[in-house]
Amino acid sequence: MATGSMSQAGQEKYWSDADTRYSAIDCKRCEDQRDYLLQYSPIIRYMSDNIKRLGGDLNKSNIRCRTCKTGQLGGFDHKYGIMLCANYIDKRSMLEDVLAHEMVHAYDHLRFKTSLTADEDLKKVACAEIRASNLSEIRSSTFRGIIKTV
């Protein structure tokens, strides 16, 4: 792999084996970081509080860290909660961004009764993704500013 001569199939097998070998370590790191963010991150606490006001509850039991094969960073499902792809998220700041993004989807589902299923209108799905991306990026500007001024 280091020489660049490994076939595409060989690379896929290598990364699949690595994901299997490191799954427990990746998931444990992800869970520790998730727990920290649920307790200390201003944006995650803000989103969690607003989700609770709408009758939802996102916590350790329904924010799960998993090894993913799809290349995505996370996902929200209104039946199961939030999935965080531990093998693709390697920093707490990245996990915070992904978790905030998925929490926006959870909030929207509770507040506006949105559904992001495959049979939805692609324009609605695209708008939901843009909204979640924009709002989850607030973390780096607004919430850090609030901490400094309080």
Q: Can you describe this structure in just a few lines?
A:
The chain has 150 residues and is mainly alpha-helical. The chain has 5 helices and 3 strands.
Mean pLDDT: 88
Strand portion: 5-15%
Low-confidence stretches: 146-150
Question: Can you count the helices?
Answer: 5
Overview of the structural elements:
- The protein has 150 residues and is mostly helical.
- The protein has one domain.
- It is 59% helix and 9% strand.
- The protein is built from 5 helices and 3 strands, in the order H-H-E-E-E-H-H-H.
- It has a 3-stranded mixed sheet.
- Strand 2 and strand 3 form a beta hairpin.
- Helix 3 packs across helix 4.
- The longest helix is centred in the first third of the chain and has 33 residues.
- The chain is globular.
Brief descriptors of the model:
150 residues; mainly alpha; 3-stranded mixed sheet; 3 strands; 9% strand; protease; metalloprotease; peptidase activity; mitochondrion
